[in-house]
Every structure is written in structure tokens, then in C-alpha cells.
Amino acid sequence: MSTALSKEQIQQSIAARVAQEIQAPCVVNLGIGIPTLVAQYVNDPGIAFHTENGLLGVTDVEEADIDPNLVNAGKLPVGQSLGASFFNSAESFAMIRGSHVDIAILGALQVDETGLIANWSVPGKNIIGVGGAMDLLVGARKVIVTMSHTSKDDSSKVLKECTYPITSTRQVDLIVTELAVFKVIEGKLHLIELMNGTTLEEVESKTEADFIVQL
Amino acid sequence: MSKIKETVEEALLPIQNGDTILVGGFGLIGAPLTLVEGLTAKEVNDLTIVSNNLGEAGKGLGLLLNQHKITHAIGSYFTSNRDVGNFYQKGELQLTLLPQGTLSEALRAGGAGIGGFYTKTAVGTALAKGKEQREIDGEMYVLEKPIRGQVALIRAHKADTLGNLVYYKTARNFNPLMATAADYVVAEVDEIVEPGELDPEAIVTPHLFVDAIIEAKQVLTREGVISR
User: Which of B202, B207, B116 lies closest to B161 in space, CA to CA?
Assistant: First the structure.
């Protein structure tokens, strides 16, 4: 069933599900890619979005109001909320490393069955950028990972062990794909939800990692 | 002596071969585009550039890279300029990749006379390899050293003639940190005003950090980088 969804629909379904995890009051950092879509599903003045390039109070922006010097971590145009503030990069990462950010929502290339992720390097390829990923994993109180369940060649991205370099020794808390929601409890993946009408059999066939079924 | 320089050449005069240059900006946002363009016209090589990215392919610091003037780049995210990977694979560029929080804190430390700091970021990953680690109150930390440069090229919104600076939105990013961490600091700004015109409560970089000021000629707009 899920194979019938377009890439856009897959991304939106993941973003909408992640939005349910965000309860006011809290500060949320959104990573590049699917995470940036989450904000449109959240409408509560008690929730503030943080971007590591120096803004607390990120909002959507209308085409007419785009300012080239007002962007998010993906360098995409954003708006600023009433009560927004700007700060330098060290102060921004003091917020992250000092655990003042409640939730970080990150993309990942791979996740393993203990909840470790790889999202900053592909050996041999020109992906040479870590950005704030390692800082967010160390400092955010809760880390949610969004990603497609499989690669373009249909191989699983939920693995027994990451084959790419890991981003942190900290395990993430929740993993949301277009097929499933996994919660990491005591270093083990627990399948807690099926997404988009997916069957357990499909999740099992597309997941290399061992996981505990807790539907 | 006035800090205001009439030409980019004059502002860049102290830069020498082999210098470490801190360059502000998050991609092209908040990057000193006029000064970087000035560097492409200057006879200088073997530079170490400290900047979050190396611009974009053929833009900003990407221009300098393509001229083979950069031998070492220190930053957090090089993926946004595909040329960087190609130079690196050919062995024409040394790269030092740091987590963005470590890069910014290392600049802060460099500017504040702090000899290094311990952080939990990168512990247990490939980026902690070869670095001293120690346990503090039951948790593992990695030692990161401060970063300083001979020169910092930064972008601000307004300067007064003394060199006090204010910034604009997310164009602030690394600029105030780099202003503190180099022997010679040039700020490129949209507007130069008289002392007293900037609210002292709003000044982000006090003038003692700034050595030279120029007006921006290359600016980032919705239509891309334009000359004015």
C-alpha cells in the first residue's frame, strides 16, 4: 500500500506523525529535509522553533516576504515570530549543548537496532558535512529521527548495525518512517505503530534490524 | 587614524601568504562577499580558511578555492559546495571537519584567551579520533583547542566610525565570534554611521574588536549576489 504514495506524500505523512510528539511548552530544533515540514502541522504559541544558524522563533514565510538574510539551517527562507530573537552561533550551540532545546528532529541515512544513527558521512562520497548533528544528539533532551524506510535500491535503512560512521553514541528516542514508528526503549527498537496502512509483514520484510512488536 | 577604508585592496593589505583567515557566514548568508571577491583579485596563496562552509560552487569562498589559493579549510559543512569534495579527493585541499558547535565555541575560546575546552560532542565518533578525552563527573568529554586567525573578514549590518557593529537577522551567525579571534579584523557593512547613532544596548560587537571597515559592494539579494 505504501508503495502507492508519492515521495511528497511520504514526507508529509512522516512530518504529520512527528508533529503529534510536540507538546507545548517546548523548544524544537528542526533539521534539514523532512523535519522542516513538521512546523506546518504545529500551531501553538507555546511551541518555539529553533534553528542553529541563530534564530529562536522560526515561522513559515509568504513568498512576498522572503528575506535572503533570514533563513533556516537548510538555507531556506523562513519568517520570524513575534517574540523571536537572533543570536550568534556559539550562543545558539550553548542552547543545544546546554540542553535548553527540548526536542531535535533530524534526518538520518541509517539507524541501527540499538537506536544509534549515521547521518553525516558516506565514505568515498563527497558528503563531508556534520553541521550541528553531533551537537544536537548530545544536547537535545529528546531526539526524533525522520527518514524513508528504505534506500533507492530498496535496501533497508533500519539495520542491525550502521555501515556508515555513527553520529553519536547517544541513542535516539523515536524513529518515524513512512512504514513504521519505532520507539527506542533500553537500547532496543520497539515497533509501536504501523503507518499509512502498512502491514506488520511489510515492515518485517523491509527491516534488517531486530525489533520488538508492541502494537 | 580612521578605520574606514576607501578600497578593498587597502582593507586587505595586511594579508600575507600562508595566513589563517576567519571568514564569517553561513553559506552566502552573512558572508563578506565584497572582501572575498577582493581576495580573489589579490596575489596571495597557501591560505587556511576557517568558515562554516566554503561558499557554494563558484560563489563566495568557492571562487577562491577554484583559484587554488586555499590549501586548508576548517569548517563544519562542506557538502554545499561540490567542488570541495573534488579538490579533497585529488589531494589538493586539506580538510578539518568540526561539529558546528565545536567550531563556534573554538572561535569563542580563541577570542577570549581560553586555551581549549572539553565537550561531549563527537565523543565516540570518527571526529574525536586522535583528540584527548577525559572523564568529568562520570561523563566522557573530548578536548578541543581554540581557533584564531591572523585575519578575520566579517559581515555586519551597520558600523559607526569607531567600529561598533550591529548585525541583521540570521546574517549574524559566526561573525561576532570571528571579530574577537583574529589579529586584524575587517568588517564589511551596509551602512556607516556616526558614533551615537547606534543604540549602545543594541551593539553586538564593541569597537575594540574591529580594525577596518568597508562598505559592502557585493550584496546578497533575492535575485542572488549583485554588485551595487
Answer: B207
Q: Which domains does chain A have, with CATH numbers?
A: 2-213 (3.40.1080.10)
Q: Which chain A residue is nearest to residue B224, measuring alpha carbons?
A: A68
Q: Tens of pLDDT along B185-201?
A: 999 999 999 999 999 99
Count the residues in chain A.
215
The ipTM, to two decimals, is 0.96
**pLDDT, position A2:** 44
pLDDT for A3: 54
- Contact A66/B at CB under 8 A: yes
For B147-186, the three-class secondary structure string (H helix, E strand, C coil) is CCEEEEEEECCEEECCCCEECCHHHCCCHHHHCCCEEEEE
Give the bridge partners for B70, in sequence order. Answer: B47
Distance between CA atoms of residues B126 and A156, nearest Å: 24
Name the CATH topology of B8-114+147-227.
Glutaconate Coenzyme A-transferase (3.40.1080)
Report pLDDT digits (tens) over B79-114.
Answer: 889 999 999 999 999 999 999 999 999 999 999 999
Active site residue A208: no
Q: Give the start-to-end residue ranges of the domains of chain B.
A: 8-114+147-227
